[in-house]
Amino acid sequence: MLFEYDVSGGGQVAERLLGDFKGAVQSDAHKGYNRLSGVLRLGCWMHVRRKYHEAFTAAKKGNGLASDALDYIKELYRLEKLYKEQQLSNDERKVARQRDQTKLLDDFKLWAEGNYSKVPPSSSIGVATKYQLDEWERLTNYLKDGRYEIDNGEVERTIRKFAIGRNNWLFCDTPEGAHASSLLYSLMITAKLNKKDPYQAMVNILTELPTAQTIEDFEKLTEYLLK
């Protein structure tokens, strides 16, 4: 996993990182990603749910539009959980999604379109509904391939500790410190994702790093991070 620091949050950062990559990219609705070309954009239903949950919490009554929206989303996730329990292959999951979720999603879109004009745009329910409609194509692209996920929750869960820490230690003081922090987190989280002991991996890398001379020497150090 790569943690990358840049003073800018603009689209040029995503372009620089992805280069001529032509696959699928899953993200939130950050506008910087709109500069990417030649990729299939995947939205995140977890972000949609979060916005509707905020609207539900803000509502003065328990049942209402936000509750209806959450019921639609709950059904999507129930189906996704079922596919995992059934251990479907990627091809089987694609077929199951298109069979089970196409009408559900169509109904949800019609619901959103029909209700958006009835709510104040600046209200929490208005913001949630607009987010859903603006992101609709990206939110439904996961139906195209069984390898794609309904959200980018796995990444968000992985970086959660970093995000919490970042809020606690404000700040990295200098850009150099931020780059160093990004590098260290990239190494440690990569080790962890590959079921390696991050501490031992760092000990091994830092022990051998001073004697590394060639590209091959540096590449060999990645063995401590990978399966």
Low-confidence segments, ≥5 residues, pLDDT <50? none
Oligomer: single chain
**Largest sheet, order of strands side by side?**
1-2
Largest pleated sheet: 2 strands, parallel
Give the C-alpha Rg: 21 Å
Number of domains: 3
How far apart the termini lie comes to 14 Å
- Please give the share of residues in helix: 55-70%
Descriptive overview:
By secondary structure, this protein is mainly alpha-helical. It has three domains: 11-41, no CATH class; 42-151; 159-224, no CATH class. The chain is 61% helix and 3% strand. The chain has helices at 11-18, 45-58, 65-85, 90-100, 102-116, 124-134, 136-140, 153-158, 160-169, 175-193, 198-208, 215-221; strands spanning 24-26, 40-42. A two-stranded parallel sheet has the order 1-2. The two termini are 14 Å apart.
Could you write a compact summary of the structure shown?
With 227 residues, the protein is mainly alpha-helical. Helix content is 61%, strand content 3%.
Topology (SSEs and partners):
Elements: H1 11-18, E1 24-26, E2 40-42, H2 45-58, H3 65-85, H4 90-100, H5 102-116, H6 124-134, H7 136-140, H8 153-158, H9 160-169, H10 175-193, H11 198-208, H12 215-221
Parallel strand pairs: 1-2
Helix pairs in contact: 2-3, 2-6, 3-5, 5-6, 10-11
Q: Can you tag this structure with a few keywords?
A:
single chain, 227 residues, mainly alpha, 3 domains, two-stranded parallel sheet, 12 helices, 2 strands, globular
